[in-house]
Design goal:
The structure is a single chain. By secondary structure, the protein is α/β, with parallel strands linked by helices. The protein is built from 10 helices and 7 strands. It has a 7-stranded mixed sheet with strand order 3-2-1-4-5-7-6. Helix 3 links the parallel strand 1 and strand 2. The two termini are 33 Å apart. The structure holds S-adenosylmethionine. The site of S-adenosylmethionine (SAM) has 23 residues, from helix 1 and helix 2.
Length: 274
């Protein structure tokens, strides 16, 4: 291995370790606050995976497993398997499903084990998303379907500007570029290119929409309890955190409700192994 590929492998390993800890540590907040927001978005891909005929289905990056009951309902004859990097997330998924802690870029399943596979809001977390698609293609049977959901263009409302300003002003560490590589998979064309590289046939791609709004307190709960923002916040000493929180709260309470309106594209792609 050359020194630069050894460095990349080391960075990938560190990134996986950080992601696994970040998600495990915040799994309770993820379950309360974020999983319910993502579930309706992930659900949209299921009707395109011919699940009714499936005998084995994989959800990679299944998180706390909110999609698993719906997968089972749509695939009544299948064993539905959940895989995720973070033990703390996966242990919250129902024990009725086989669950395995593993990296979606290096799955411990035999070739051609599944009739359908889902990657919902995970691809951008993989150090090399192409490797993730290659693994999904490897473990899928001929004619099997692979569905992905990722974030497209995002419109962050003014509330974010206030929060990020306060984090920076209070000395929070900068965002970690390895947390997510949204820009690699934020259009149908980019995900399609990864699929065609693996000789997957493109079945369908489309762009959906995520819309949400919240109160100042709900906004702060999201920012301080899960995700990359929580990590930056938690890195500050307790007293600084309190000052940052109070200052942000004060400013956010003066914002119009419109200042909390979030909009983002959701990119869906379905490919088939030939
Ligand atoms: C945004 S959450 C999405 C979870 C779930 N799919 C959902 O929609 O609620 C991202 C998930 O990907 C997992 N993850 C991150 N990197 C991963 C990797 N390399 N392999 C498998 N899972 C990974 C995280 O642990 C986390 O559970």
């Amino acid at each position: 291995m050359s020194s630069s590929s050894a460095e990349m492998a080391d960075r990938a390993r560190q990134s996986r370790g950080k992601l696994s800890k970040l998600y495990s540590d915040a799994a309770d907040a993820y379950e309360d606050l974020w999983a319910p927001e993502l579930l309706p978005l992930s659900r949209a891909v299921l009707s395109h995976l011919a699940l009714e005929k499936a005998h084995a289905v994989l959800e990679a990056g299944a998180g706390i497993g909110s999609l698993l009951p719906e997968l089972r309902e749509r695939a009544p004859n299948a064993v539905v398997v959940a895989a995720d990097l973070s033990f703390g997330m996966l242990k919250r998924a129902s024990g009725e499903f086989p669950r395995a802690v593993m990296d979606a870029s290096l799955l411990s399943f035999k070739d051609e084990s599944f009739d359908a596979a889902v990657l919902a809001f995970v691809l951008f977390h993989l150090f090399d998303p192409a490797q993730g698609i290659a693994e999904m293609a490897r473990v899928t049977r001929p004619n099997g379907l692979i569905g992905t959901a990722t974030w497209g263009a995002e419109h962050d409302p003014p509330a974010y500007e206030i929060w990020f300003e306060e984090l920076t002003d209070h000395g929070a560490p900068p965002p970690d570029p390895d947390f997510a590589k949204f820009e690699l998979v934020d259009t149908p064309e980019k995900v399609e290119a990864l699929m065609t590289e693996e000789r997957l046939h493109l079945v369908r791609s489309w762009v959906g929409e995520y819309r949400s709004t919240c109160t100042p307190d709900e906004f702060l709960a999201h920012r301080t309890r899960h995700g990359q923002s929580r990590l930056r916040y938690e890195a500050m000493p307790t007293e600084v955190k309190s000052r940052c929180f109070e200052r942000a709260r004060c400013r956010l309470q003066r914002l119009e409700p419109k200042g909390f309106e979030e909009r983002a594209e959701v990119v869906y792609v379905v490919g088939q192994k030939l």
